[in-house]
Amino acid sequence: MNVESSDETPLDRTAERVADFVTGQVASPAASRSSSNEFERRLSGLRRRRRNRQRLGIGAAVTLALMVAGLAAFRFKPAAPGADLSYRVDGQPPPAGGNVLVSERAESLLAFSDGSKVRIAARSRGRVVDVNGHGARFALDEGKVSVDIVHRPRAQWTFEAGPFVVSVHGTSFTVAWNPADTLFELRLQSGAVSVASPLAASEIGLRAGQTLRVSLRDLTSTVAVTVDGGRETPPSHPAGNTTAVPSPAFDGPPTTRARPPESARWSYRGWTTTLAQNRALDVVADAERRGLATVLERADSEDLWALANAARYAGRFALARQALTAQRRRFPSSDRAQEAAFLLGRLHDADPEGPGTALGWYDRYLAEAPDGAHASDALGRKLTLLQRSNRTTEALAVAQDYLRRFPRGTYANAAHALVRAAQHP
Questions:
Q1: 4-35 residues labelled b (16+ CB within 10 A) or e (exposed)
Q2: What's phi and psi for 185, nearest 5 deg?
Q3: Residues spanned by the domain of 314
């Protein structure tokens, strides 16, 4: 029995067998009949083996192709839907020791791995509370953010601003929150959102081009539509001809009434409403027409408060300080006087000569209103100022006090980080 070389191909082996058969026929014609059966048997076996090899080769090729395709898909596929998103702050990893993000003089950009972006305006404060595979939860403590969310299936993004909760999927909008005046505003550029408001029995749905303003102080909710020229008007009413009526609840577009005549429109008592309509410059202009010195000495507590905040919003910080100081001097026992101390600290936060004045006002507020609405914020801002000034020992004492009083507060992560750093230098 011949041993076949491993280098031989099936064609070589077939040719050898045919040659053997032909040789046998020539050498011994008598053997042709007995060899014919042998030849047919060998040829049938050869065909059977060839079919098996073909099937095996095709199976191996298909298996290899599937393996290559699988490896390519594994290498180039996007992150799995359940994988958590990541984000960077101004191109850098998120802050260590906490997720409180403060933008004092310039805006900050939060860029998420799915392409979504959140821009925090100057003098605003916010924090990323949670990030998961479907989106993120962002809390705006104060100020304004511009949001651009990439639309994805099953996306879930939530933006909190005080007691307001904005639910989005894929859209662009800006949201602002002023905790001192409990004033909320959302402007929707594209897409759709729903807003849970403490003044509404159900969520308020907004469409592209609409603006929602809510004042918790005045118990008013207003939805306006942007028209040509950038003006805004409540839906289904002529532009510039109506204003919202204060109401304890909001279940849709507000009812309206005609504005009072021009001669009666400007009054001290109207400043709060004017401010809620985002017309801070109108309040300042009216105060200047009446005479600032007269207003500062004769306006009542609510009017001074409206003027102070209008001046802050309009960037007239010197006038804001004057109005807040007048508030404390003329109405020293009022709640507004205590809040004025906190806001005076805010106005001095970025003083170029140092934090001394701001720290003094925060200390005064904490002494006058230790359990006040801004106690956590005042103590947290004091902590930030001391850290910024490298007054580590004082900052550590404030951090410990903050954690004792507000263990779940906005600045708790930063306070924990400072305490840990002191314990493990």
A1: eeeeeeeeebeeeeeeebeebeeeeeeeeeeb
A2: -145, 135
A3: 262-423
Tell me the CA end-to-end span of the chain in Å, nearest whole number: 85
pTM, to two decimals: 0.43
Residue 3 included in any domain: no
Q: Do 269 and 245 share a structural domain?
A: no
**Residue 242, both tokens:** 């109506």
User: Within 13 Å of residue 347, how many CA atoms lie on the same side as its CB?
Assistant: 24
Residue 173 structure tokens: 């909008």
Cα 11 to chain centroid distance, Å, stands at 70
pLDDT profile of the chain (425 residues), mean per 10 = 49 55 49 56 66 63 55 42 77 70 76 91 85 86 90 85 82 88 89 84 83 83 65 39 32 35 44 81 89 88 90 90 93 88 90 86 92 90 90 92 90 89 81
- Where do the H-state alpha helices sit in 156-218? none
Sign of the alpha-carbon dihedral angle for 97, 102, 108, 109 = positive
**HEC per residue, 205-265:** EEECCEEEEEECCCCEEEEEEECHHHCEECCCCCCCCEEECCCCCCCCCCCEEECCCHHHH
Question: Domain check: are 187 and 312 in the same one?
Answer: no
2 inside domain: no
Task: Look at residues 258, 279, 302 and tell me which one is the last residue of a structural domain.
Answer: 258
The answer on 145 and 35 residing in a single domain is no
Residue written as token pair 């081009």: 209
